[in-house]
Amino acid sequence: MGASTSVRAQEPVITLREAISRTLQSNPDLAAYAYTLKAQDGRITQSGLRPNPTLSGTVENVLGTGLASGGQYAELTLMLSQVIELGGLRERRIDVARRERDGLQAEGDIRRLDTIAETARRFVSLASQQEQHQLTHLAVELAEKTAAAVEKRVAAAKSPLAERDRAAVALQRAQNDDAHAEHELQTARYALAASWAASKPDFVSASADLYRLPTMRSYDELLAALEATPDLARYLSEARLRDAEIALAIAGRRQGLQIGAGVRRLEQTRDTGLVFSFQMPLPVGDRNQGLIAEAEARREGAAAEREATLIKARTQLFGYYRELLDRQRQVGLIREKALPRMESALAHTDYAYERGRYSYLELVDAQRELLELKREAIEAAAQYHFTLIEIERLTGNGLSR
């Protein structure tokens, strides 16, 4: 949306670009998610660490019976052992942790797009409320003008007293609607400021032209853009994660060797000898068959979910695109054809009423039709921008820029 000429220069205003920039800098949800990525960085570091060596000690042939009742036949052994991982187990562990981070990064990109889209929606809501507020101002002006005209006709005995009362009531209702519109406008300001965790807005209005409808790329171009969206990219990240998990499960079938070396003290002869140890788990029953099968199933599931998500996104895109074209046509018809005719009709009706050729009801009906038409234009233009935001969110294009 472009800058609006109706915004007074002395008022603090905010643009859509500024609103999105503030959101990206200070949105609490995005700030909190950054710590999730930092936590995963810690897991990557941890997964790359090698097993610590183990220090063990044993004392044998003590506190027994006979010759072993004392300590003269004791044997003290101190051992230092180390697990040696085989089959690239450490590298596979690191790869899984990194793929998990890729998945979290994809989720972060999705959260970023969602946050930007919500800020854009709130900005459009504020711009729409500004137009609605101007419309209620116009309704008050028309009601005031009508009440004055009715007062003149009643004073000249050309209209009954009941018309003056009806005009007064209509003016009060218009003023109430205007006050309510002011409340809605203030609420929209606070909602937009909350996007970047501000306690209250430091702006008065959105610098926007609601009726400037940006053009959208062709449907085929948008359809092609769906393939690269973060919503689908996360399934690619998940597939890579599952592949890494499969590799880790296969590598885990060989759990590694544990070798050790130490010294043994023979108390009886006061001799010292070296001791060596070797341990290797035998993969007789548990060869990680279950973990491998689970990872393979999740890998296939990620591919199926991606296809289902793509089909759903294509369906949504078609609906949004048709809605966008329909709203564009509606705004054009109202503003270029219907509104000029209705404004002309109201001017003729007002002129005729002052000269007694039209009744009060005909004047009020013409005013009502004009206000309704303007309201339809506001709603259609706002819906165009809302739909455009959904398309940009769905395709991942435009919002980030």
TrEMBL record:
A Pfam family of this chain: OEP
Cleaved signal peptide residues: none
A GO MF label: efflux transmembrane transporter activity
Family the UniProt entry places it in: Belongs to the outer membrane factor (OMF) (TC 1.B.17) family.
Name of this chain's protein: Outer membrane efflux protein
